[in-house]
Amino acid sequence: MAMAQIVSQSSNFPEIVELNVGGQVYVTRRETLTAVPNSLLWTKFTQGSPRDLPKDSKGRFFFDRDGFLFRYILDYLRDSELFLPEFFKEKRGLQKEADFFQLPELSRRLAPEESELTSPVTSPSGRTLRSPGAVSGYITIGYRGSYTIGRDIQADAKFRRVARITVCSKISLAKEVFGETLNESRDPDRPPDKYTSRYYLKYNFLEQAFDRLAEAGFHMVACNSTGTCSYGSNDPGEDKLWTSYTEYVFSRRTD
Questions:
Q1: How far apart are CA 73 and CA 110, in angstroms?
Q2: Residue 120 domain flag
Q3: What distances in angstroms separate CA 98 from CA 27, 120, 180, 226, one per listed residue?
Q4: Rounded to whole angstroms, how far apart are CA atoms 102 and 37?
Q5: Together in a domain, 194 and 100
Q6: Which residue, of 119, 173, 225, 226, has the greatest Cβ tally within 10 A?
């Protein structure tokens, strides 16, 4: 394709571009997105046109990828350098994103070193049962749920509807156990020795969270729950809507 034609097509894009990547919104310059020739974003924003790209309900260009990890993709495009937080547990996930966005140099930098390839004991699913140098500690899993009890309980399809699973613990413990499934967007880049109550998981299955904790050597030591009940209307015959907040406390001792 002639250079003049590429310039003509890229000029159809705004200079300031809004992106929706997996639900996370980013605003950047078009020249940042096209900083690496022949990458996926370079192709999309130089050889394509705005109408070729999917958009969300607000007109932002949409990519169905990991919205949290895209921040590091964008940082690399800005400076051609890679800066990751200490104890960063998602290198493999980020390498997968680099491969998708066709950034071979970034993918090469993220490739595991030989020492990282010799992993400790793993479960049948391939996840680490306990990291080397694992430490004692507590992790609290919380969720706010709702369910409806009607006249025909057996027909109720909304039992234990979980909106979001929160994680409260020391930063290093949360990252060790939940890795790439942990959403840190509300409390990013905190030191690993600090505590947080603002993390949550990217899925809403409690059993999936419990499996991760069990494989990391944690055991449940306490649980508490509160709930309230309200009618859908003033008619006593209407279904009852229950809302609850539940916390499960897990502990690991390594001595």
A1: 12
A2: no
A3: 19, 26, 15, 44
A4: 10
A5: no
A6: 173
Q: What is the pTM of this model?
A: 0.47
- Is 170 part of a structural domain of the chain? yes
pLDDT score at 204: 82
Residue 26: give its domain's CATH number: 3.30.710.10
Asked whether residue 91 falls in the same domain as residue 186, the answer is no
Q: What are the angstrom distances between the C-alpha of 94 and each of 27, 37, 82, 141, 219?
A: 20, 20, 11, 26, 30
Sign for the pseudo-dihedral over CA of 167, 75, 99, 61? positive
Task: Name the token pair of 79.
Answer: 């400076």
What is the CA angle 37-39-43, rounded to 5?
A: 85
Range 171-175 average pLDDT: 89
∠ CA(231), CA(233), CA(239), 5° rounding?
50
What is the residue range of 20's domain?
A: 16-110
Q: Is 128 a member of any domain?
A: no
Query: Rounded CA gap, 39 and 57, in Å?
Result: 26
| 225 phi/psi in degrees, rounded to 5 | -150, 145
